[in-house]
Model the fold of this input.
Amino acid sequence: MENDIEFKSAEEIKEYQEHLLHQALVYLNGHSRYYQRMFCKYDINIDKISNIEDLVKIPFTEKKDLQLFNEDFLCCPKDKIIDYITTSGTLGDPVTFGCTEKDLQRLAYNEMKSFECAGLHPGNILQLMTTLDKRFMAGLAYFLGIRKLGAGIIRVGNGIPELQWDTIKRIKPDTIMCVPSFILRLIQYAEEHDIDYKNSSVKRIIGIGEGLREQDLSLNLLGKRIKEKWDVHLFATYSSTEMGATFSECEYGKGGHVHPELIIVEIIGDDDLPVADGEIGEIVVTTLGVEGMPLLRFRTGDMAAKLVDRCDCGRNSYRLTPLVGRKNNMIKLKGTTLYPPAINDVLDNTPYVENYIIMVRYSDAGTDDVIVKIGLKANDNHEESDIIKDLKDRFRSRLRVTPKIEVLPVENIHKMNFPAKSRKPIKFVDQRKK
Done:
């Protein structure tokens, strides 16, 4: 711990990151066709980028750049690439990334530190409820991280509550890792099949892909519902393929800790300039130590704030608040600004909703129109009109505004949630013209 940069002073962390930033710039200037063109076009002298504040002199890298010039980001010969992955394509066409042996070692190190942050050590057993196939980085990264940590892992994959509970009973993991909303399905299955889940071996849940907390770091509706049902330790994480890094909460649940040796984070406002610490803006990342496809000032599209005070765990590295949502997915409904996660939170906390999809489009007046399509649980016998009224009351209480609500067969919603080639369930569809 004494040699871990996260426990050094904020000044030492910044100085260390600036040293790594210089190395990254030199590497990009020597190996990346894309960034060589950028530096030339904008007359950027990398020797004059001496500190993190100087990053504002460099243009952003955007998702469309990765889509249009994908191979130009590759910084090594193709025969050094040993693993190919793609992004999920949530905001457009998937982007291909190539990882070298060094990159996979970096991934393992990143996840090892994240698991350590969440309290794991050799002797723990983690049940992994996400896929390792379908060109997915996350599952592979988690496996490599647990392996490097020296803890045990059970690669069960996603879905299938029956198999998940059979595995828990057989091998007795103390930790499970999955999409938080799936926990509610696990609990429901356990209750329906008389499984004493509250006294199982599971004491810790690490959530991926969905939020568990509000901006004030208290549990959101989904987190509260899980905690009320199952008194386990909850840990939220934030990660993405592009940055090859994970922000994991520690036991104090006060935001996701950055690993300073792996990534530099800027929080950018609407004017494309850094906002004050604690203010919400877009997350912009510069990767450190990536050999295959490093990125400089990449706009993630995700919205959060940076927390810089010392955490109770003793780490001085800055942290990120829970995501507010994606910048491009902001909704203006009846004068109220919303992001899809706020709508998800209401639906995930509604007991009669089996599945759902949120759709936004422009109305005839040019304003945002939000339609929530829901499937109902089989044992629900309420009138449709009563359900719609109750759900509107829930939205009004939580968000102050109500979207349009349609009730459809569960099978219809399922098809929309899982279109062909999708690795992740689709819960939000933006039909507005960008």
Summary: The mean pLDDT is 90. The first strand starts at residue 83 and ends at 86. Residues 255 and 400 are 27 Å apart (CA to CA).
